[in-house]
Design goal:
The complex is a heterodimer of chains A (about 140) and B (about 300). Chain A is α+β, with helices and mostly antiparallel strands. Chain A has helices at about 1-15, 20-35, 40-55; strands at about 55-60, 65-70, 75-85, 100-110. The termini of chain B are far apart. Classes of the chains: A alpha+beta (about 140), B alpha/beta (about 300).
Chain lengths: ~140, ~300
C-alpha cells in the first residue's frame, strides 16, 4: 500500500526509483538471456528473410540490420533493410527507380505495441551504418 | 553403509575429537529412510551461501535431525570457519574420495549440536580434482546415515558447481536483491533443470531501502525467479558478529535472523510455518513506516 502510494508520488514528480530501474534492467537482460538464439540460427533466419525480400526488391544487404528488441510484453524483431531499387514486376516495366527507400518491419509478439503516450523506448542500433536513415516504425 | 564403518586410523594421525556418525536407529528392523540431499547454491559469490548452509544445518540439527554438511567449495574452504570448526578439521572430502581415510574419520562433529557433522573441503586442491561420480557416491552413502545432506556449492557454474549439484535432489538458491545476483540465480535455476527441486531464500533485504524504492523487494526478485519462497533474511549485523565468532546465529535465541533461520529450517522439515520476512528496524521512521505500511 505504502509502496503504491510512493509509486504514484514518484510517477507524479517524474522521478524513477533505482529499484524500478533495476527491475527494468533485469527484465531486459533476462529476456535476452532467455531468448538464447544461437548466432547461427539468427544468421540462418536473416538469410531467409533477405531471400524472401529479394524476390521483390533489390536490397542493400551490407547496410542492413536485423536485431531484437524487448517490447512491453515480448520480444520484437527489428529489420532495417535499405532498398536499392524496386524490381520490375513485369518485363516491360524496365525503369527501375533509383531512389533509396528503407523497408522496415516490426513484429511484436504479445500485445499490440502502441507506444502512444508512453516514454519512447530507445532504439538500439548495433551498427551506426547506412541504416541510420530509418524512420521510426509505425 | 556399515562397510564404511571399518576404522582405519592413519598411523600418524593425532588424537582427534572425531566421532563416528550416530548409528541409524533400528536400521535392521525397518527399511532405511533415506535422507534428503539439498544443495545450497546461487551462481554469484558473496550472497550468503555458506552462511545459509551453516545456519540451516545448525537449525535442522537443533531440531533433532541428523545433519551432515559437505563443503563442496574445494580450494576455498570456508564452511568450517563460519561454523567455528576450523580447528577440528583434519581430513577433507578428497581424502575420503581418494580413499586415504574413512568417511567416519573425516567427519567433524559439531561442538554444540551433537547430531551435526561437517565434511570439509580440501583447501590445497582444485575443484576439477573431484570426480562427479565419486561425489554422487559420497552423497548417496551419506544419505543412508543422515536425515539431511546439505551441500555448500561454490560460486560459479563450472566443475565445482556441477559436482555440488550432482548428488542433490533439492536446491536452496540464495539470492540477494541485486541485479547481478538475480540474473545469476536465474541462470543457475535453469542449470538445475527439472530434476532438482529449487526453493528460494532471499538474503540481505533492507526493508527501509525497499520502502524508499532503493532496493529490489522480495516480490520484485521473485516476480522474475518465480520460485517457492522459503524465507527472507534481513541484512542484519548479528550475522556478521556471529560469523566473526564462528557461532552460527541460528543458535542465538535472541537474534531475529536466528529466528528466521530456524523458521526456514522448520519449513524445510515440512512444518506449516510462515516464510520469515526480513526484520530490520533501521530507525524510528522505519519502525513507524512498517507499523503503518506493513513491511512485506
Amino acid at each position: 500500500m505504502l509502496n503504491r502510494v510512493m509509486g504514484w508520488f514518484r510517477t507524479f514528480f517524474g522521478t524513477t526509483s533505482s529499484s524500478s530501474v533495476a527491475k527494468e534492467r533485469l527484465r531486459l537482460v533476462l529476456l535476452s538471456d532467455h531468448l538464447a538464439l544461437a548466432p547461427d540460427v539468427i544468421e540462418a533466419m536473416r538469410r531467409d528473410i533477405f531471400e524472401v525480400i529479394s524476390r521483390y526488391v533489390e536490397v542493400d544487404e551490407a547496410h542492413s540490420d536485423v536485431s531484437f528488441e524487448h517490447k512491453d510484453e515480448g520480444i520484437a524483431m527489428l529489420a532495417s533493410i535499405p532498398i536499392v531499387s524496386l524490381k520490375p514486376r513485369e518485363p516491360e516495366e524496365s525503369s527501375p527507380k533509383e531512389e533509396t527507400s528503407v523497408l522496415e518491419t516490426v513484429s511484436v509478439n504479445g500485445h499490440n505495441s502502441d507506444n502512444f503516450g508512453r516514454r519512447p523506448r530507445k532504439r538500439r542500433r548495433r551498427k551506426a551504418s547506412g541504416a541510420s536513415q530509418t524512420a521510426p516504425a509505425q | 553403509m556399515e562397510t564404511q564403518r571399518i576404522v582405519t586410523p592413519p598411523v600418524d594421525a593425532p588424537q582427534l575429537e572425531i566421532h563416528a556418525p550416530p548409528a541409524p536407529v533400528e536400521s535392521q528392523k525397518k527399511p532405511k529412510t533415506r535422507g534428503r540431499t539439498i544443495v545450497v547454491t546461487s551462481g554469484k559469490g558473496g550472497v550468503g551461501k555458506t552462511t545459509t548452509t551453516a545456519n540451516l544445518g545448525v537449525a535442522l540439527a537443533a531440531r533433532g535431525a541428523r545433519v551432515v554438511m559437505i563443503d563442496a567449495d574445494v580450494g576455498l574452504r570456508n564452511l568450517d570457519l563460519v561454523l567455528g570448526l576450523e580447528s577440528r578439521v583434519r581430513y577433507h572430502v578428497l581424502d575420503v574420495l581418494e580413499g586415504r581415510v574413512s568417511l567416519a574419520d573425516a567427519l567433524v562433529r559439531d561442538k554444540r549440536v551433537p547430531t551435526l557433522y561437517l565434511l570439509a573441503a580440501a583447501q590445497d586442491r582444485e575443484k576439477d580434482d573431484v570426480a562427479t561420480d565419486a561425489m554422487v557416491g559420497l552423497v548417496e552413502q551419506l544419505r543412508d546415515e543422515f536425515d539431511y545432506v546439505l551441500i555448500d556449492s561454490p560460486a560459479g557454474i563450472e566443475m565445482g558447481f556441477k559436482n555440488a549439484i550432482a548428488g542433490a535432489d533439492e536446491a536452496i538458491v540464495v539470492c540477494t536483491p541485486e541485479v547481478a545476483a538475480v540474473r545469476d540465480v536465474d541462470r543457475v535455476v535453469g542449470l538445475l533443470g527439472n530434476r532438482i527441486n529449487a526453493q528460494l531464500v532471499v538474503n540481505r533485504i533492507r526493508p527501509a531501502l525497499v520502502r524508499k524504492g532503493k532496493m529490489l523487494s522480495v516480490e520484485d526478485v521473485n516476480a522474475i525467479l518465480r520460485l517457492p519462497l522459503l524465507g527472507v533474511l534481513g541484512d542484519a549485523a548479528d550475522v556478521i558478529v556471529s560469523t566473526n565468532r564462528g557461532e552460527p546465529v541460528a543458535l542465538d535465541e535472541a537474534s531475529a535472523t536466528g529466528a528466521a533461520y530456524r523458521a526456514i529450517a522448520a519449513r524445510i522439515a515440512g512444518e506449516d510455518v510462515a516464510a520469515p520476512q526480513a526484520a530490520e528496524p533501521d530507525g524510528f521512521m522505519d519502525k513507524l513506516g512498517s507499523f503503518f505500511g506493513g513491511r512485506r
